[in-house]
Amino acid sequence: MAADRRFKIFAAADGFGQPLKDAVVAHLRAHPAVAEVVDLGVDKYYAAAAAVARQVSPSDSSPDATEVRGVVVCGTGAGVCIFANKYPRVYATHCASPADAVNTRSINACNVLALSGIATPPDAAAAIADTWLATPFRAPCPASGDAPWPEDIQRFLDTAPEEMAAIPEPQGPPDSACAICCLRSGMEFEPVGIMPGGEMRIVRESPTSAYVRFKAGSVEPAHHHTFGHDLVVIKGKKKVWNLTKKESYSLVNGDFLFTPAGDVHRVKYFEDTEFFIRWDGHWDIFLDEDLDTAHSAIDAELGAASNSK
């Protein structure tokens, strides 16, 4: 039963959906069946949907695993639904009522809930989300007259998940001759103790090179080093605020950034991100703020940027 499952939920919204997303995130963090909610923040509606779908698409759906799901919110709920559904094994549905949630969980195994930030008030969204979490696949629902599905529909639903997962047909991994990607294969990482969600592996000492990865939603509080460093994003999405220069940089796959020695900078990761970094000298780091202060500053800036659009 869905009531026995534990959930990890990724959430994101555009500017129209942010207030409702924030309310739903707060509600879900207090839900007894929810182990973790990762708030991926605010972006263009298609980018917000993609950020969530990337986390749900490869997730483990085995019975003993924490189930990964997503919540996406835009003005109507339609745009985020369209783009979330571009990812394999993502079944996103816009729900305007608890009955919608029961139907789509029962019939479609919906794992990404799309909501309208304009049309759906927070209390209604909370009821929809609760129903969406509580309803198992193949449950009696309004579409079945709230009765168990007849035998022919049960047979259809028995085979549907495997057939749905095969669309589109999976493609084999591309051949890669990238030296950095080959280096990363099989690498053992060590946690970055003062940066929750971060791991790194130093691959060369003085001048030093390292491969670093951070989980989506992670934040690096404002800090500085005694060395300047070059980094190249291998995959993912992050934003760096150079507080010394009062500049910010949005970085995605293939982007490069140099940060001079002593410059104080703060970082937010919007997706699982990996990057290669090189600096002169030995590793050091000096924090200029705590994690709570960093989260507050980033949330305030992202919210202000969204409201200005």
Automatic annotation (TrEMBL):
UniProt xrefs under Pfam families: Cupin_7, LacAB_rpiB
GO molecular-function terms, A-Z: isomerase activity
InterPro entries reported in the protein's UniProt record: ChrR-like_cupin_dom (IPR025979), DRT102 (IPR012100), RmlC-like_jellyroll (IPR014710), RmlC_Cupin_sf (IPR011051), RpiB_LacA_LacB (IPR003500), RpiB_LacA_LacB_sf (IPR036569)
Superkingdom in the source lineage: Eukaryota
Domain ChrR-like cupin: 205-278
PANTHER family the record matches: DNA DAMAGE-REPAIR_TOLERATION PROTEIN DRT102, RIBOSE-5-PHOSPHATE ISOMERASE B
Protein name: ChrR-like cupin domain-containing protein
